[in-house]
Design goal:
The complex is a heterotrimer of chains A (312), B (280) and C (235). With 312 residues, chain A is an all-alpha fold. Chain A has 12 helices and no strands. Chain A is 72% helix and 0% strand. Chain B is globular and about 55 Å long. Classes of the chains: A mainly alpha (312), B mainly alpha (280), C alpha/beta (235).
């Protein structure tokens, strides 16, 4: 009984960590490789979550659809919707300086949140979308295990694609843009096109992650997730793991998720009257942790690999 | 509507001046500014509800504590990150914002508070209803802006601050101690933030998210006025404040922050150097 | 006794050294000139004196006191002033405010000194209320020198004060350097591209190559040295 409970808990935690890892990989493409400062991660996550939810739920009077489609279609839809959103955002903002882009992306996330909350016809507003189907529910697999398998499969696919991208000439151009945009421009590359591609692909990973989350929990609402917190945690994961290193990003996601889960054990020991404070304390600790990482280990657990070349 | 716009604009101005000055001196967008506002408001709340101070008696204490916090954070964290890229400071300030908000929740809880109890009887001026608080906020902000102007143009330290925003290396060559100027900049930025936070709590109500929710508008005001420019921030604050409140005539009030954002993006694309022009 | 003494200095900004054992001495009341090809470390040497480049070997002494790697704002207090080559004014501040900033460390009344600067540069007086960023290159150079004079320094470091100026202004600048040196008794160390003209007014000259002294001598000696003439004076 004890063991079964522990394994169940482990599976549950690993699934969530995997969902975060997909987002962290997306951010790594944007920030780690291309130097784009996106702090609107939650916006793309939410867009993906809602897209897949609306596509796959049974018809409902409360919100648009549902269209009762297979989950594979839902995931594809999530990727497309977040990709289109990123394209629109990117076309307008990607030529901005880093800090302006940061402010702009936070605005996007805020607008997505307001939109999901207020457009009842589409999203059922604050009441949220329920009855989101589970993945692989027709197979004899344990549902929790099925979720984990799907998430790990998605993580493997995203990781594989990003690693291929990183090794390719395409990945080298992205890093060149990060190091010296004018230089890359001078060598005849269409810098803007590369930036858009990185931004859109990274955001697609975030959308996919949102869809995975929706199918994992079965219910989503604008209040169910704290957007700034998701964004923040993903950033901490990437910095802790080592930006511009995909293995680092996944490792960082796992490590920080473990720390996050660990703090729950710690605060769980506090007397019951402190439960409202406990959540805040955990966020506070993570906020302090990130300062520590920036001060003492800014390159993260796994620093960027230099592919045998040394930088002057 | 216009009155509400001016009130919001005054508050945004106080926040935007701080963000703008910090950017001018330290070259990064301070993401914890909204939460610094919230923090100041909560300190005032403690003095009002805990010790029975009037709101304006509590304000100086709120300012002092917020300034102390800002300088402490700078000494402990930002100062050591200054040698690296400014973007690292940006990430750091985002983390500080989360930590500060969490701290506020731990101390004061997640719920709503009111800084002032009871209903105010509005004055009627030319057929427009104006609450006493509104007058306080607008006049208070104006006084602070004038005081800041005098400080920046009449005092040695104020001029040193402008010199450092212009050219930090040259400022050091003339004997200006950069660290001291930075500490003063935090002092002024945090004072204005605390005041803005108290005003915001007077105008509406106070919860841990209050400051974060206006941060986007504060940034919009800063950018509209031209980042790093103090007078631009005043103009930007008022324009954003009025535009946001007036927009409720046409679109749903729920989308207020989106209006500020739309103006900001339009501005960034069309005129990134800000309304008043000059260097970017 | 020499006023400024630089001893076997090595250092730069990052990992690679720009200064590779560079030495020079400037005595009270002298004009010393540094010439040399681009990238020889001339500007870096000046910045090193002002704590803007890092020195890991050797030392810098001013008036007998060790100022090696001293914080920039503290060097000024010793009576040294520095005019960088570029970005040497505060563009959004007025001419008068720029001069006030030059006197930042002074607690006494500096109006007299400001009048003296205005006498040297009448043009600045006309434009005292104008923002420095709106002035011409020549006027900015005047303001930068005027600003440096506000502390009544014992020594002035000038980094290519004639760069980008028209011939008329170049002559004027050299005249000015002589005036400041003769009349006000300020010791001068300057880096110059107009090597011939600079050496003509110099008591001492140094040729810097690859962060090291190549030739040292009086201004006259260097002008007459065929090697220096061929390599660095263009003929």
């Amino acid at each position: 009984m004890e063991w079964a409970g522990l394994i169940n808990y482990g599976v549950f935690m690993l699934t969530l960590a995997g969902i975060y890892a997909v987002m962290t990989l997306g951010l790594n493409l944007q920030w780690g490789f291309t130097g784009q400062f996106n702090i609107g991660i939650a916006g793309f996550f939410a867009a993906g979550a809602y897209a897949s939810a609306i596509l796959t739920t049974p018809p409902s009077a409360d919100h648009l659809g549902g269209f009762d489609m297979p989950i594979a279609v839902g995931l594809l839809g999530a990727v497309l919707v977040s990709g289109v959103l990123a394209l629109l955002v990117g076309l307008v903002t990607l030529n901005l300086r880093t800090d302006y882009l940061a402010i702009a992306t936070i605005g996007i996330a805020e607008i997505v949140r307001l939109f999901l909350k207020n457009e009842d016809w589409l999203t059922n507003g604050v009441r949220g979308v329920a009855e989101i189907p589970k993945a692989l529910s027709t197979t004899p697999l344990d549902p929790a295990l099925a979720d984990l398998l799907v998430v790990l499969a998605a993580l493997a696919v995203v990781y594989g694609l990003l690693e291929r991208g990183r090794r390719s000439p395409w990945g080298r151009v992205l890093r060149a843009i990060r190091e010296s945009e004018p230089g890359t421009q001078a060598s005849g590359k269409n810098v803007f096109a590369f930036r858009i591609q990185a931004f859109v692909l990274g955001s697609m990973a975030m959308g996919l992650s949102g869809a995975l989350y929706a199918h994992f929990t079965g219910f989503i609402s604008p209040e169910a997730f704290d957007p700034e917190f998701i964004t923040f945690l993903v950033w901490v994961m990437l910095i802790a793991g080592g930006s511009a290193n995909n293995r680092g990003a996944v490792l960082g996601a796992m490590a920080i998720w473990a720390v996050w889960a660990g703090t729950e054990f710690l605060t769980g020991k506090l007397p019951a009257e402190f439960t409202t404070q406990a959540g805040a304390l955990r966020i506070f600790l993570i906020g302090v942790l990130v300062q520590g990482i920036l001060l003492w280990r800014p390159e993260g657990l796994l620093p960027e690999r230099q592919d045998g070349k040394k930088r002057g | 509507m216009l009155v509400y716009g001016l009130v919001l604009g005054s508050i945004l101005t106080l926040g935007a001046i701080g963000v703008s000055m910090l950017f001018g001196i330290l070259r990064f967008a301070h993401f914890a500014h909204g939460d610094m506002m919230t923090f100041g408001a909560y300190i005032a709340l403690s003095f009002v509800t805990g010790l029975g101070f009037p709101v304006f008696g509590a304000l100086p204490f709120a300012i002092v504590v917020t300034v102390a916090l800002a300088i402490a954070i700078d000494r402990l964290v930002y100062r050591r990150l200054r040698r690296t890229q400014p973007v690292i400071l940006l990430i750091s300030s985002f983390g500080i914002a989360m930590a500060l908000r969490a701290l506020i929740q731990m101390i004061w809880g997640p719920g709503n508070h009111a800084l002032q109890k009871g209903i105010q009887i509005p004055y009627r001026v030319l057929g427009v209803a104006i609450k006493p608080d509104h007058i306080t906020i607008v006049v208070g902000a104006a006084v602070l802006v004038v005081a800041l102007h005098l400080f920046l143009h009449r005092t040695k330290l104020g001029k040193a601050m402008r010199a450092m925003a212009d050219n930090p290396d040259l400022a050091a060559i003339t004997g200006i101690d950069n660290e001291r100027v930075i500490a003063w900049t935090w002092g002024i930025g945090a004072s204005l933030a605390a005041t803005a936070g108290v005003f915001l709590a007077l105008d509406t109500h106070l919860n841990p998210m209050t400051g974060w929710h206006v941060l986007l508008m504060v940034f919009a005001a800063t950018i509209l006025g031209g980042i790093g420019k103090v007078y631009g921030a005043i103009l930007g604050g008022l324009v954003i404040g009025v535009a946001v409140e007036m927009s409720t005539l046409m679109i749903e009030p729920a989308y207020k922050p989106a209006v500020a954002f739309a103006i900001m993006v339009a501005m960034l694309v069309a005129r990134p150097q800000g309304l008043l022009g000059g260097r970017a | 006794m020499s006023l400024l003494k630089i001893e076997e200095v090595r250092g730069g900004y990052g990992k690679a050294d720009i200064l590779n054992g560079c030495s020079l001495e400037v005595a009270h009341g002298e004009i010393a000139v540094i010439i040399g090809p681009n990238g020889a470390g001339k500007s870096t040497l000046m910045k090193a004196v002002f704590g803007l480049a890092h020195i890991h070997k050797g030392g810098i002494f001013f008036n007998g006191e060790d100022i090696t790697n001293l914080a920039t704002q503290k060097v000024v207090a010793h009576g040294l002033a520095y005019v960088p080559q570029e970005n040497n004014v505060f563009p959004t501040m007025t001419v008068e405010e720029n001069l006030e900033m030059g006197a930042f460390l002074r607690d006494d009344d500096f109006r007299e000194q400001m009048e003296r600067v205005f006498e040297l540069f009448p043009r600045l007086k006309e434009r005292r209320a104008q923002p420095a960023g709106t002035m011409s290159g020549g006027e900015r150079q005047m303001l930068a020198m005027g600003r440096a004079m506000m502390m009544e320094p014992r020594m002035l470091l000038l980094d290519e004060p004639t760069a980008g100026l028209s011939p008329k202004y170049i002559d004027q600048t050299f005249e000015l350097v002589k005036t400041v040196n003769d009349l006000l008794g300020v010791t001068i160390l300057m880096v110059e591209q107009n090597a011939r003209q600079a050496l003509e007014i110099a008591d001492k000259g140094h040729v810097l190559v690859m962060g090291r002294n190549r030739h040292d001598g009086t201004g006259r000696e260097l002008l007459d040295d065929p090697d220096v003439a061929r390599m660095f004076l263009g003929g």
